[in-house]
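REVIEWER CHECKLIST
Item 1: Sequence provided? yes
Item 2: Single chain? yes
Item 3: Sequence as submitted:
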Amino acid sequence: MATTEEIKKLRDETGVSVMQCKKALEEAGGDVEKAKVILRKISATIASKKADRTLAAGVAAAYTHAGGAVVGAVVLGCETDFVSKNQEFQKLAYDIAMHVAAMNPIFRSRDDVTEQDLKAARAVFADEAAKVPEAVRAKAIEGKVDSYLKERVLLEQPFVKDPTITIRGLLDSAIQKFGEKVELVRFERLSVR
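Item 4: Structure as written out by the authors:
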């Protein structure tokens, strides 16, 4: 049985409802780290159920770094003004903008990667894999392409402030926390160099 202090601590760390924290702690046998993993799995399930909902509100946020040399900007959408005006939601948008400034993603999701982008990446990696035995060369190239995309697709990048969670995981947690669809609508990174 989870204590009130353990539940409160998990709630403070995750922002998830008290009841969900209690249930996750009970399922994890009181292990806080296991409970966090359980909550992440639940948040992904909740996110998929809310995927068809309409975004009607949101917030734009920008982060300036390096004395004004780099700016990351995002538009984070949600369903209601109630959530878009929430300070935690606005902080999430700001944190993702900071991540964009720091990590310089190229694509929002894999859906934004064109066949031409994939063809160019495969050509580069085909040259690198020329010495790999032909029987496994295609698999090696696809593995390199997959790694390349994970580094450049924003939703798949590890969050700069907590590398144990991806940006997609961060958004899934927000969906669980705010109880409505949250989506990264757009991002930009501007740099003087």
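Item 5: Key structural point noted by reviewer: The CA atoms of residues 61 and 117 lie 28 Å apart.
Item 6: Recommendation: ____
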